Amino acid sequence: VEDLKDETLNLGTIQPNGSITLEVKYNPGTESHSELTAILNIAGGSQRSLKLVGDMGKPKLVFEKKQVSFGIIPIEIPKNLYFKLKNASNDPAVFSVINPKEDVLSISPMIGRINPKENQSLNIEVQFKSPTVFQTKVSIAICGASPISFLVNATAELPKIELSYSDLDFGQIYIGSSTSRQLSIKNISNI
Questions:
Q1: What is the pTM for the complete model shown?
Q2: Do residues 156 and 77 make contact, with C-beta atoms less than 8 angstroms apart?
Q3: What confidence tier does 118 reach under pLDDT thresholds 50, 70, 90?
Q4: What is the 3-class SS of 114-168, one letter each residue?
């Protein structure tokens, strides 16, 4: 429940037999249960109190595994993997992904709701512009629960090629004639 303890709101005047509508907004944090008492002061009258209660239950998100490993991948080519997130509780779970490396790592969806005992697949994509060994921790904030995290790692490399040929000297060639030589290009890397 939004913190109203230190705020005083002047709501104006209500005409005889009239009414006003107020909106109370609940923004859950990591606490599964929140309570707050709001006090309504009536000028020339008595105080009224309103107890506000927000309850997220006890959501619990779990992963199939704690790490997403892309292995060795070529630079400039995007690579995708899917990662399953499961709600193991009897309460719905509202989550948001905290991505620390948006320049090379993309995750979707970034926010969502998972009903009890259901799964959500996260699409994780990496793309690198230069050779690198990459590892980062991705956190998932869960309303009403502590955040959870997993590791993403990859190694980006340039492919290694080998040229194989015996002789590329074409010698003397006359106009109107042609000759050819064999050239072999072999990818000797794991990508």
A1: 0.68
A2: no
A3: very high
A4: ECCCCEEEEEEEECCCCCEEEEEEEEEEECCEEEEEEEEEEEEECCCEEEEECCC
Contact (Cβ atoms closer than 8 angstroms) between residue 128 and residue 107:
no
pLDDT tens, 145-175? 899 999 999 999 998 889 888 777 888 888 8
| CA-wise closest residue to 120 among 168, 82, 167, 152 | 82
Sign of CA dihedral 12, 14, 20, 23: positive
Task: For residue 163, give the nearest of 136, 178, 181 by alpha carbon.
Answer: 181
Q: Are 53 and 35 contacting, i.e. CB atoms less than 8 angstroms apart?
A: yes
| Number of Cβ atoms within 10 Å of the Cβ of 68 | 20
Dig out the tokens for 16 from the structure.
């005889």
